[in-house]
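Subject: Sanity check before I submit

Could someone independently write out the structure tokens for this chain? I want to compare against mine line by line before I put it in a report. The sequence has 279 residues.
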Amino acid sequence: MPTQRNRSEGWQHAKRTGHANEALLAEWTQQNPSVQQRLLQAAHKPHCTIQSIEYGGLCETDVDSVLGGKTKSKTDMWLELSDGTRLNVSIKKDTGGQVFLIGIDRFIQGFEAQYHQVIDSSVKRALSLYFGSAEDTLEIINRFGNPVTKALELRKHRLVGNTLREYNSQLYGELLQWFNTHIAHLFDFCFAKGLALHSQDWAHLVWYKNMVGENAFDTLIYLPDMSARISPTAEYGTKNGGSTIQLPFGFVQWHSPRKIIPGSMQFHHNYFRLLELLR
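---
Independent answer below. Compare away.
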């Protein structure tokens, strides 16, 4: 019978196997010139050679953040190239899962700083209600919430889409419109940059490759190419009154791993949706 893990144990297991996967991929790349050439071709650097390979592993270090202080880089493997540049690779060993977890206020501040934009106050209001950081969240749930979803909303201290629409249909529409207008930046934020300040810390390639278990895939995605393919097709999910926003590369949901209120924005990636965009 397979071992059952609680959420904390599952996260630790995923982290350990993720680092093991990075180490195996780095070694495999080091030993195989054909693999190196695939990476270079995917990044439009076919005339370069790879001089050295490093990976994050358990000793990964933090990098400078656009908000000051330090943050985690999206990069798992660094390839030093013969032209003096560096090719940064983000490694995914699963077809789905968390790609970015960030608090609501930190998301707003980080997005504005990373892309030199100001998010409209109405969108900030909608984000604060949908993900539950607004002070009047519970009051609105009690007034406008549907009996079917109210218990979930009260427990998570957030509005689902249907309640947001019932409370203010304009905010409901503006939130979705903002996601669609900025969908390429959101993809870039989740997969390439995060809160990392310096371009040398941004990921250039995503490599879907698992060498420690399941998932027989081996797909390279050059992130700038994919950003140009991302379509504005974000929509509210159909479950639990619209508790997620479905994205062309995955979805975003409310999440609080330590049951802290307010929760955070948890972006998920979806390998099969990305494959559809590549076709």
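---
OP: Matches mine. For the report I'm noting this point. The radius of gyration is 20 Å.
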